[in-house]
Design the sequence.
C-alpha cells in the first residue's frame, strides 16, 4: 500500500479547499432557518434590486476570475468569450428563478461544486485518485444537498422538498459543465500553441 494513500490530505492546498467546503456548507446549513424570514422581508422593488445587485457582483467576480485565468493563456479572446457565456447562463437562469431560496441554492451549490472539484483535482495532482473527478464532485454535492433537505425535516418552519435536491443537482451540473468547458478550451489552446 502506498504511504500517501494513508494520508487524509495530500497537500496543504487540498486541506484548505476541504476546509472552505466545510465552512460554506456550515453557513448554508446554518442559514436554513434564516432564508425564509429574509425572503419575506425583501419583497418589492428594493428587495429585487438588492438581490439582483448581489448576484451581479457575484457574477462579475466569477467573470473576473475566469478572465484572470485566461490572461495566463495566449488566446485571451476565446477564454473571455467562454467566461462571458458561462456568466450569461447563470444570469439568465437567475433572472428566471423567482424564489430567493432557489437563487441562493444556485450560487451556494455552484460554489460547493467548484470547491469540491478543485479539492479532488488537487488530490489527483498530489498522487491521489485521478478518475471520475467530475462525477465524484457531483456525488459529494448531491449528498450535501440531500443532507440540506434532510435537516429541513426537523425544522418547524421548513419543508422537505425533493425539487430542491434536483435544483442543487442542477447547480452542480452547471458548475461542472463550466469547469469541463474551461478544461477543454485550455487543452485545445495548449495543443495549438
Sequence:
Amino acid at each position: 500500500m502506498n504511504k500517501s494513500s494513508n494520508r487524509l490530505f495530500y497537500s496543504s492546498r487540498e486541506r484548505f479547499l476541504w476546509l472552505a467546503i466545510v465552512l460554506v456548507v456550515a453557513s448554508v446549513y446554518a442559514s436554513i432557518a434564516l432564508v425564509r424570514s429574509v425572503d419575506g422581508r425583501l419583497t418589492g422593488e428594493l428587495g429585487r434590486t438588492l438581490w439582483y445587485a448581489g448576484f451581479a457582483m457575484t457574477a462579475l467576480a466569477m467573470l473576473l476570475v475566469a478572465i484572470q485565468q485566461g490572461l495566463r493563456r495566449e488566446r485571451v479572446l476565446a477564454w473571455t468569450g467562454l467566461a462571458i457565456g458561462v456568466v450569461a447562463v447563470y444570469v439568465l437562469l437567475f433572472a428566471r428563478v423567482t424564489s430567493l431560496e432557489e437563487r441562493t441554492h444556485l450560487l451556494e451549490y455552484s460554489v460547493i461544486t467548484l470547491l469540491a472539484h478543485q479539492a479532488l483535482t488537487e488530490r489527483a495532482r498530489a498522487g491521489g485518485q485521478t478518475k471520475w473527478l467530475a462525477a465524484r464532485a457531483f456525488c459529494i454535492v448531491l449528498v450535501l444537498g440531500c443532507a440540506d433537505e434532510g435537516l429541513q425535516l426537523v425544522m418547524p418552519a421548513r419543508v422537505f422538498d425533493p425539487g430542491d435536491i434536483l435544483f442543487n443537482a442542477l447547480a452542480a451540473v452547471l458548475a461542472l459543465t463550466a469547469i469541463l468547458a474551461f478544461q477543454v478550451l485550455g487543452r485545445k489552446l495548449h495543443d495549438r500553441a
